[in-house]
């Protein structure tokens, strides 16, 4: 049976790359260090800690890169909302545009997707 997320000794269930409001936000080199710390903590304690990259993730393609990184560093178990979330408000607009294009075969005009 998989261990449940009980957080770290300090009570964290998730760690986050940034608030998303800084000039430099979620970067892969920093994320790799954080993910390996999560993995080491899990191996040591059996407790799972979630990860949330935030800031600078604006496209569906960006999110796929983050999903790949999580899968490679932590495995499939971390590819669940309980353990992995993306903090990227701009991402929703791109996903809407991608779905619109997939369904209609054309790119959306500004008035087609008012939230974008």
TrEMBL record:
Reaction equations catalysed: 2-deoxy-D-ribose 5-phosphate = D-glyceraldehyde 3-phosphate + acetaldehyde
Q: Any coiled-coil ranges, and where?
A: none
Pathway annotation: Carbohydrate degradation; 2-deoxy-D-ribose 1-phosphate degradation; D-glyceraldehyde 3-phosphate and acetaldehyde from 2-deoxy-alpha-D-ribose 1-phosphate: step 2/2
UniProt-listed Enzyme Commission number(s): 4.1.2.4
Q: Which GO terms describe its cellular component?
A: cytoplasm
Give the GO biological process terms: carbohydrate catabolic process; deoxyribonucleotide catabolic process; deoxyribose phosphate catabolic process
Q: Which Pfam families match?
A: DeoC
Q: Which InterPro entries match?
A: Aldolase_TIM, DeoC, DeoC/FbaB/LacD_aldolase
Which molecular function terms from Gene Ontology are attached? deoxyribose-phosphate aldolase activity
Keyword flag Lyase? yes
| Statement: the UniProt record of this protein carries the keyword Lyase | yes
The UniProt keyword set, sorted, is:
Lyase, Schiff base
Q: Which family does it belong to?
A: Belongs to the DeoC/FbaB aldolase family. DeoC type 2 subfamily.
User: PANTHER family recorded for this chain?
Assistant: DEOXYRIBOSE-PHOSPHATE ALDOLASE (PTHR10889)
Question: What is the designated name of this protein?
Answer: deoxyribose-phosphate aldolase
